[in-house]
Design a protein that fits this description.
InterPro entries: GPCR_Rhodpsn, GPCR_Rhodpsn_7TM. It is a multi-pass membrane protein. Pfam families: 7tm_1. Belongs to the G-protein coupled receptor 1 family. This protein starts with a helix and ends with a helix. It contains 15 helices and no strands. It has helices at about 1-15, 20-60, 65-90, 95-130, 135-140, 140-160, 160-165, 180, 185-245, 260, 275-290, 295-305, 315-325, 325-345, 345-390. By secondary structure, the chain is an all-alpha fold. The chain has one domain (about 1-245, about 275-355): Rhodopsin 7-helix transmembrane proteins (Rhopdopsin 7-helix transmembrane proteins, Up-down Bundle). Helices cover about 80% and strands about 0% of the residues.
Length: about 400
């Protein structure tokens, strides 16, 4: 029975993509090998962020809304990893339309919730940086929880529409691809819902970047003015001293050699922020989703409006192959990048993880020391007993 199902699914897949081609086989194998590893990495990294965010919230760390949003992004990506692993390990003989709808629904709903949560983080950072005095009035934990619930409701509704009856043809779940499961209109709706928060992220982070660069240039100008004023005061002092001694003498030129090395340099600002750091933050935060999921959505739109399941042209088969393996892998990598970009770059979260790691390492050292001490004491007691027995 299993062999019949495998042969049937292979024939259906051959109609969809040319599996006799060696390049196509390698591309499909790439998905089978990489996706389980990526899924495990997604689950581990995002679970660590979820637990850490929970501990920070339990301790009352401020701002609470920011840690709620960070934890929610990690939670959505955690479910994406679970859905990816589920799709790979579920036995093929038990696959049908409902299992396929459940798997794709989990991936789409968690991905949309993740994208919407990234948009919420952008709004949160925008209000915190640009409107800091009114931040506590506009953003507070109760409102953050409601907005997080909204992301899950929207993502769950859109993602599980095929399970509710709005679906295409997956040959009863034998080829469980989003472009086959979802009708054209649902693919378009999913892409629109996913693009809106990305546009919000780009606009808000560009505004933040503009204000950050403006402040940096202002600080740099203030530093230049203060250094110029300081040099002018030193020159005036030198002129005053020179006139008191000899009005006709000129200020001696700066000394050369070793004396110039030990000459005290003018004071500079210690903590002048770097404009490149602000630019890098914006590039990574906006580029993460654009570089991972956007190619998948764009090619999916091209496919649903240029091809269908019965179209067997080379162009359509190539689009199916791109969507099935490399672009899907690239999209799932977003769930691995998110905890690194949004959690690790957050100073409060990073400091907390470092402190917990130090405490854990100290505990491990104390345990190893205590065990070594007990072992050495046991050895000493045993050697003393042997010595007494020999004497007796």
């Amino acid at each position: 029975m299993d062999q019949i199902l495998l042969n049937r699914s292979s024939s259906i897949l051959n109609d969809t993509v040319d599996i006799n081609n060696s390049a196509v086989k390698k591309t499909l194998l790439l998905y089978d090998y990489f996706i389980p590893m990526i899924g495990i990495l997604i689950v581990i990294t995002n679970l660590a962020v979820v637990l850490s965010s929970g501990l920070l919230l339990k301790k009352g760390q401020e701002p609470r809304s920011t840690y709620l949003y960070l934890g929610n992004v990690a939670l959505t990506d955690f479910f994406t990893g679970i859905a990816v692993i589920f799709g790979q390990v579920f036995p093929i003989q038990y696959r049908d339309h409902y299992v396929c709808s459940l798997q794709i629904g989990m991936i789409v709903s968690s991905t949309l919730a993740s994208v919407l949560s990234v948009g919420l983080i952008a709004i949160d950072r925008f209000l915190y940086i640009i409107h800091g005095l009114k931040y506590q009035q506009w953003v507070y934990p109760q409102r953050a929880r409601l907005s997080i619930g909204f992301t899950w409701i929207v993502g769950g509704f859109i993602g599980f529409l095929p399970l509710m009856g709005w679906y295409g043809d997956t040959q009863n779940g034998k080829i469980c691809w989003f472009i086959l499961l979802a009708p054209k209109e649902l693919v378009l709706l999913t892409v629109i819902i996913g693009i809106i928060p990305i546009l919000v992220v780009i606009v808000l982070y560009l505004v933040i970047l503009f204000h950050a660069l403006k402040k940096i240039f202002q600080l740099q100008n203030l530093n230049k003015q203060s250094s110029n004023q300081q040099e002018e005061k030193i020159n005036n002092l030198r002129m005053f001293r020179g006139n008191a001694k000899n009005k006709g003498t000129r200020t001696p030129p700066p000394k050369k050699g070793f004396s110039r090395v030990f000459k005290k340099a003018p004071l500079k600002s210690v903590n002048t922020p770097s404009k490149w750091k602000a630019i890098k933050v914006v590039l990574f935060t906006t580029g993460s989703f654009i570089g991972t999921w956007s190619p998948y959505f764009i090619v999916s739109l091209l496919y649903v409006y240029k091809c269908d399941f019965n179209t067997e042209t080379k162009y359509c088969k190539n689009l199916r192959l791109l969507i099935a393996s490399p672009l899907a892998i690239l999209g799932f990598m977003n769930s691995f990048f998110n905890p690194i970009i949004y959690a690790w770059w957050h100073k409060g979260f990073r400091d907390f993880v470092k402190r917990r790691f130090k405490i854990f390492s100290k505990k491990e050292d104390s345990i190893t020391k205590s065990t070594s001490q007990t072992i050495s004491s046991k050895k000493n007691s045993m050697s003393s007993e042997i010595h007494l027995n020999v004497l007796n």
